[in-house]
């Protein structure tokens, strides 16, 4: 059995390596002393970890004059990220859309294709459309397509990553027990992985977004469904059968409507995009969309702010129990509801302050994700190109 103290030490070491890489991705170049000042790491720790990253060819150590530095005396040595040749393909399925993208190791989305389609009722058709979109992306890369090392699929469903199968009780019932990665792998002639979309969002925000510098993260994807991606000790936590974070099916109202999972009054049935828009629709002649809701929030529409804030309070009530049990450093809000902005954040924070233990929330960061609609694509890139954070 692995030593838990050693696992903790390894996680901290990997976290600190990530802080160094993150610092350089922001500044472009830095001396070792500057990295120490930026990260707060001890000089000996910086020296040790930089040595590892140089040996792995993830960093380059070059003279300052190679970066157009012109100073009297001996030029300082500066560290830069090594050019990366690896690319990945991200495939993000929603209830009614598919987005595909090319992602590099710095979390940049280099090209995107998107389509509106009925993902639920036709898994075969949806996978074929995704294959065609990826083929377009690869064709656009030309000779660089050989730099693509793999692809990852994100689904709004529980995924058993050991078996590669889609679990029941999700917004894509026609996909249950399918092996989507296997189905695409042969067609793309690339290694393909499949993962829950909230888990990909968590990986993306931890590597390149609002959860950078944190090792214990709860990422919430609030859209047609509501799910959470959990990162504990710097590693993605899926649970024994891939169903960890299924917060959309936590009962909130025992007398509420029957949810598709069979319970009554689940969080998803009272605080999803579908429910938020349905509650606001009677007050508007136009057909409401999330884009319009976000605009109403910006215009300080009282109804939009109230309904979105109420949804945040309901989500926050469920998150409070998770915070009490997991003691994360940050909660990141993503998905379509989060794109509407501040009222959701305020509502979540209100419930966390009320229902979570004071010591748990005193230093807890609660943030809107910074990767927006690209969170799942960037997370797919992190899964393929930085597998250490997902294992």
In brief:
With 391 residues, this protein is α/β, with parallel strands linked by helices. 42% of the residues lie in helices and 19% in strands.
Structure description:
- This protein is an alpha/beta fold and 391 residues long.
- The protein has three domains: 4-81, Winged helix-like DNA-binding domain superfamily/Winged helix DNA-binding domain (Arc Repressor Mutant, subunit A), CATH 1.10.10; 87-190, ATPase, nucleotide binding domain (Nucleotidyltransferase, domain 5), CATH 3.30.420.40; 209-372, Nucleotidyltransferase, domain 5.
- 42% of the residues lie in helices and 19% in strands.
- It has a five-stranded mixed sheet with strand order 5-4-3-6-9, sandwiched between helices.
- Strand 10 and strand 11 form a beta hairpin.
- The two termini are 17 Å apart.
